[in-house]
Amino acid sequence: MTDPTISHLRVDGATLHYEVRGRGPLLLLIPGGTGGAASFDGVADGLAADYTVATYDPRGLSRSPLDDPEARQRVEQHADDAFRLLELLSPDAPARVAGCSSGAIVALHLLATHPERIERVVAHEPPVVEVLPDAAVHRALLARVQDTFRRDGLMPAAAEFAAGLRRPDAAPAEPPASTELRPQAPAQTEQPPQTAVQAEQPSQAPAQADPPSQVPTQAEQPPQAPAQAEQPAQVPVSAEQPAQVPVSAEQPTQVPVQAELSPQAAARVERTMADMPYFLGRIVPSFMAYVPDQDRLKALSDRLVLAGGTDSRGELPYRPAAFLAERFGTELVHFPGGHTGLSTHPTEFGELLRKVLSDQFAEP
């Protein structure tokens, strides 16, 4: 793997850690979950043969600290961070952008607000559940998860969340595993330790309740995406004002690091676990309450590629992309694996992403 150039960008309320490798037109990769820049380690080198590839840790996660750790998180501000990176790294030319899970939500808002700066966007399973006909059910799920977080702590809430991402007809799984909505760990060849909670992760952080989110993203085999449990009870929650849970709700238990993990892999797993309270308490309720401008996106659909996982059909993170593709009259492109296909099938995922980003790409 090529060592990237690491830098920091000061933005409103935070300092972003970002990494750049390769040369050519800019490709900005927006991670989901708690994976950060490391979630794209399995594909970045391959893409760097054709692009200047930029990856980063979103504000508040991993190596991108917030000025105010209690600050409310908004999709709009995260999209503005991505825009600042575009302005810095490609001031004179539009860029290509790809996002997974919660990072795909950021990519959608970035396209809607700054289309002049975007040549093409690939959005892999953005969990914009407010576009779905049964959005009220998912608001109830989010309210239930946040209530569990406040009352019982991180692990039970993460388990509740993971169960809610599964297909309604799926058989109950063993301990719920991760999905790309979960915080994401980094990609690796060494297998990370399994624990009760999993992040939306490429590298394997723990396998169980993981707060889904992307996004959602590597070679350390992530846990299988959770199947779905019974529908949660309906609890009214305002889409505009998602409930915020104090990040300090309960620190996740320390992950025992296996001896075979390299120090770098162990550090990534530790970062993923440390970020989970922030992800589940601040990112999930705000991002999944986000309502995209569907008319605006439809008008820009010639440069938007909506994507889903071949193995995640019918799961909650998959459904919004399928719904929007049908509404826009475009094809849903299927990537290998499920919500965390970026982690589980990095080689195939990267090859298809290169094709989809290409100017010659034709939708099936």
Provide keyphrases for this structure:
364 residues, alpha/beta, 2 domains, eight-stranded mixed sheet, globular
Please describe what this structure looks like.
- GO terms for molecular function: triacylglycerol lipase activity.
- Residues 25-161 form the AB hydrolase-1 domain.
- With 364 residues, this protein is α/β, with parallel strands linked by helices.
- It is built from 10 helices and 8 strands.
- The protein has helices at 41-47, 75-89, 102-113, 135-152, 154-164, 263-287, 294-299, 319-328, 341-344, 346-357; strands at 5-11, 14-22, 26-30, 52-57, 95-100, 118-124, 304-309, 333-335.
- Strands 1-2-4-3-5-6-7-8 form an 8-stranded mixed β-sheet, sandwiched between helices.
- A hairpin with a 2-residue loop joins strand 1 and strand 2.
- Helix 2 (75-89) crosses helix 3, helix 4 (135-152) runs antiparallel to helix 5 (154-164) and helix 4 (135-152) packs across helix 6 (263-287).
- The two termini are 32 Å apart.
- The model is unreliable at 173-179, 182-243 and 245-259 (pLDDT under 50).
- Helix and strand element order: EEEHEHEHEHHHHEHEHH
Distance N to C terminus: 32 Å
Percentage of residues in helical conformation: 25-40%
Approximate shape? globular
Main sheet, how many strands, which sense, barrel?
8 strands, mixed
CATH architecture of the largest domain: 3-Layer(aba) Sandwich
Say what the CATH topology of the largest domain is.
Rossmann fold
Number of domains: 2
Classification by helices and strands? alpha/beta
Number of helices: 10
Q: CATH superfamily name of the largest domain?
A: Alpha/Beta hydrolase fold, catalytic domain
Strand fraction: 5-15%
Q: Strand order across the biggest sheet?
A: 1-2-4-3-5-6-7-8
Q: Runs with pLDDT <50, length 5+?
A: 173-179, 182-243, 245-259
Report the strand count.
8
